[in-house]
Amino acid sequence: MSRRNQMIALGLLLPVLGVTLYFTFRPSAEFRESYRWVRTVYSHQCRNPALRLDILQHFLSLEYKGAHRNIFVAELPPLRRCLQPVAP
């Protein structure tokens, strides 16, 4: 194939590739509608950016009541005896 024919083929195939990629990767109508809804929700969300001190105070007053285990030690903690020893 001559150089001229290669350039003609390239000139014809590039627009075909562009149209194919456009129709393959364009967002669907559902995506565009959901994106419009998300943009609307997030644009109206932060009307009053005041800090809620009552909620902050509630979370600061909470205490952790779970097992106090050091997560940086690979050994298991010593077992606790749940049952009282039986007197002989």
Which helices and strands, and how do they pair?
Elements: H1 3-25, H2 29-43, H3 53-61
Explain the overall architecture.
With about 90 residues, the chain is mostly helical. The protein has a domain at about 1-45. Helix content is about 55%, strand content about 0%. The chain has helices spanning about 5-25, 30-45, 55-60. The longest helix has 23 residues, at about 5-25. It is elongated and about 105 Å long.
Quick structural summary:
This protein has 88 residues and is mostly helical. The protein has helices at residues 3-25, 29-43, 53-61. The chain contains three helices and no strands.
Mean pLDDT equals 79
Please write the string of helix (H) and strand (E) elements: HHH
Beta content:
under 5%
User: In one word, what is the shape?
Assistant: elongated
Low-confidence stretches: none
What would the keywords be for this entry?
elongated, 88 residues, single chain, mainly alpha
